[in-house]
Amino acid sequence: MSKVWFVGAGPGAADLITLRGAKVVSEADVVVWARSLVMEEVLEHASPEAEVFESTSVPLERVRELYERAVHEDLRIARIHSGDPSLWGAVLEQIELCEDLGLDWEIVPGVASFGAAAAALGRELTVPEVSQSVILTRRASRTPMPNNEDIKAFAAHGTTMAIFLSAARPRALQEDLLEGGYAPETPCAVVYRASWPDEQVIECPLEELADRIRAAGFTRQALVFVGPGLAAGGTRSHLYDPGFSHRFRKAEDRKADRRRDRAPDAVADGKS
Description:
By secondary structure, the protein is an alpha/beta fold.
């Protein structure tokens, strides 16, 4: 049966593709991938008999021709996307194309680049009592942003932001973040090509962000994080708090704990 699978191959490292994604690639008659975004080692999962189609410079019209072939020749196509297809994957227009052709399709999720970047930092992006939200966004470029979706407006929330596709104009990005409400000393991090062999990580306060990005020479494939949660510590979640109960665990007797804590003082004062 002809079908297209949109496979999230992960952020870069070939072994970050999911088991499901690797299986789909191995069973495909045609594998479509973009050399500029996906590590070539991912193709090791493909069958030796599969036709491999490199799509870096291919417009949607050429993709339509390939999907028409799938319908007529009963082909299974694995369309490999970097990261997860749900984020800036240009997958919606391809889904519409499949539906126009009467071609079955399915999305196989992948590891998103912001997750790999956070792993490279060794940080949890949601810190109790500091930041419980993560905003994923980008600056306007040749692709405009919708109304009310600009960096300044999002910065006003003061939570963690993961900013994609914005390293080419670091000075403008820094100014937007400052004008939006982040303090100059707000922690920032830049992760270049997360999980690739040439991965690089920069950590700095917001007031140094533009200079550090320019000094490193990053203009693309760099993800910028900003927010107080990036340097927070000393907080504790309810998940492992002995006094917090949920359906799988009863809370410990905190009154008993307090009685035990007070006992030595009581003995010392001759009150027991």
